[in-house]
Amino acid sequence: MPELPEVEALALDLRGRLTGRAITKVHVAAFSALKTFDPRLAAIEGTLVDDVRRHGKFLDIEASGLHLVFHLARAGWVRWRDEVPSIPPKPSNKSPLAVRVVLDEADGLTPGLDVTEAGTRKSLAMYLVRDPQDVEGIRRLGPDPLDDAFTREVLAGILESEGRKQIKGVLRHQGTIAGIGNAYSDEILHAARMSPFKPANSLTDEELATLFAAIKDTIGAAVDRSRGLAASELKAEKKSNLAVHGRTGLACPVCGDTVREVSFADSSLQYCPTCQTGGKPLADRRMSKLLK
Fold first, then answer.
1. Predicted TM-score of the model (pTM)
2. Where is the Formamidopyrimidine-DNA glycosylase catalytic domain (predicted)?
């Protein structure tokens, strides 16, 4: 799933490619992706792109006062094409293509963006709005960990208000802290040497300082590594720098212990027992139910 660092890098890459260019057409190949009806999608045709920015994990293409906003969900991605096909895409359940954004011709080519979503579970969303705050998911976002306003005191207030909720869930809830998902919450907790099941309001002052530093350092380093990369390079960059997420059964790069996994209904988390839980494996609740 694209998270804050990847979407930040996508916004930077697309800003350089799109700013000042005209959007000539937006083709919707997966009708379930379009979540708005006013303004009509045709309203963005002929507009000039002014900026591309990020709100949490939302990608926002601003064009002549309108905002074409994408949430890439779990399996979405954006692919730049130097030339798009002249024939509009046909709706198909078998094709990963969800949306195609066509730009004005340049140097004899008609470039554009293909917004795709892999798999059968279709959650990718596109909104055309006059203000990003018209998108409920953006309006409800928590503070952004890259903002200077996200301080240790702000984090302390969040954790206290969340009570006994598990710290893993608090970190990845977008209404609590914007932009952190399943992968980077695993990485942050590993860097902080903290159990994903630790209650949010149970941290000591020292643990709070450690967690705050882990959030800033982990997200900041990922953004720095991703900055300047093309969209086609971002997935590989992310994967190559993960310490525990997606590395079940492999050695922890810090202590050498085996990375473990806890599975849920539709997701999983990874952690290192030695680094995070005092050497004790966490119960895999899904597997425990199967054994009963």
1. 0.92
2. 2-93
Alpha-carbon Rg for the chain, nearest whole angstrom, is 21
CA 5 vs CA 71, 144, 179: distances in Å: 14, 12, 8
Distance CA(278)–CA(167), nearest Å, equals 17
- State the first-to-last Cα distance of the chain, in angstroms, to the nearest integer: 32
Residues of the chain with confidence (pLDDT) below 70 = 265, 285-292
Give the integer Cα–Cα distance in Å for 180 and 173: 8
pLDDT tens-digit map of 156-179: 999 999 999 999 999 999 999 999
Cβ distance 270 to 197 under 8 Å? Answer: no
Given the DSSP bridges, would you call strands 58-63 and 125-129 parallel, antiparallel or unpaired?
unpaired
pLDDT of residue 121: 81
